Amino acid sequence: MTDADLLLRLGVDSATLDPAPAHHRGTAGPARVGLSPVACTLCAAPARFTRVVDVPGSGPCWLDRCCPCYLATVGMQPSRVPATVDGIVADLRAAAVDAGVALTVLADREAG
Hints:
Blueprint: H1 3-10, H2 28-32, E1 49-55, E2 59-65, H3 67-73, H4 85-99
């Protein structure tokens, strides 16, 4: 399921979502749901979970959810985890470049 499919299934009007940064380092999300949380996209209760969704035509946007709405919809989310070791290593390398750190990956391909 794509992010667009998720929003459609949840009945979320993508025009109501707040724009999100294209790349965030993990602090922007917690700030949204911290001491003064934004409202849940689905029910307007204080949000406790957030994630960036890719909205066609708009780019990255925040999908904010309270605990009950998150638990009711978590199984609908598309997986962003690469399915292969090569995909995981590519993601790690990209993150290292973004962070400006050196990365050496050791993998035992014969171990399975």
